[in-house]
Amino acid sequence: MIPVNGDRLLSDLRQLASFGRFKTGVDRVALSPADLEARRWLMQRMQEAGLDPHMDEVANVYGRHPGAKRALLIGSHTDTVPRGGWLDGALGVAYGLEIARAALESGDSSPVGIDVVSFQDEEGTYLAFLGSRTFCNDLTAAEIDAARSAIEQGPRLEQAGRRIGIVTGIVGIRRFRIRTRGQADHAGTTPMVNRRDAGAAMLRLGSQVAREFQALGGKDTLWNIGSIIFRPGAPNVVPSEAEMVLEFRDTDPAILDVLEREVRNWIDQSNRGVCPTELEMMALIAPTPLAQKLAAILASSGLRGARRRRRADSRAAGACIHVGAYDGSGSDRSRRPASAGRGRV
Fold first, then answer.
1. 33-49 and 90-106 helices, crossing angle to 10°
2. Torsions phi, psi of 152, nearest 5?
3. DSSP state of 89
4. Is the omega angle on the peptide bond into residue 232 within 30 degrees of 0, that is, cis?
5. Is 0.85 topped by the overall pTM?
6. Cis ω for the linkage preceding 239 (within 30 of 0)
7. Residue 97 has what pLDDT?
8. pLDDT tens string 179-229
9. How many other CB atoms sit within 10 Å of the CB of residue 47?
């Protein structure tokens, strides 16, 4: 077992949180000055640790273990959502850095080195999973040009009394923008029966989500209405337009299909009323199972001493959507991430 320096790890996390600090969190969106400053700091820390740091064309930061022909890659992302948390993504990168640093300091003679990565724009500020998709050679040059997204986020391990989880899959995500259009009228003089209230129509759709998704989904299905906007947004004007962003997640594509089909049915029903409704798909991300060989290795490796472990799906999307299927052998080797280079997967 390689001993790590917990105080040094916390120091790195706190220093990283200083880039874009906002109240108790961080505002460090992709490619912002704070993000780029944090990535330059990370490259310096990698170099001090004995790694060979490199920043690619989309600002992924990759630290290579010197001289290793094969390497275990550990990392996540250091960009954040606006006014986000200081550990989301950053914890995975800082863990990777400390493990790689401790391994080099210990003089460990393992034939497998430890590389560290911070992927760019995993939160989707410009293009969702820009960094990990580039790493996996899953983006065209046109998509990259047009763009010019772990800590276990949730209480499930704690509630189950488990200290360690082996991720077996990453959820799929479907995100929609829903718009209703009505007619702006004076709220103090227009009778209720004569109104074309886009806001009321949208609230009915939102209440259907809250009321019916629980029965339609599985026990681990997640959904969220993250934004509702009424226009013109005046208290004495009937809304002429309303917009809502709805997202739902699950590892079972059949459940995602059921939920999407029901949403589309609700839209059809709404269109029979006085307020036309439109549905726009914003994100369609398929569920990703973890490579079975990798899951087996994790289950039988150093984790076997941790009796309080469980297998679980990850509810948060991230780089593993794109790199989680790679196991570095067999058919997957032919699809090795282009950025990894020299057979280091």
1. 20
2. -70, 110
3. T
4. yes
5. no
6. no
7. 97
8. 999 999 999 999 999 999 999 999 999 999 999 999 999 988 999 998 999
9. 12
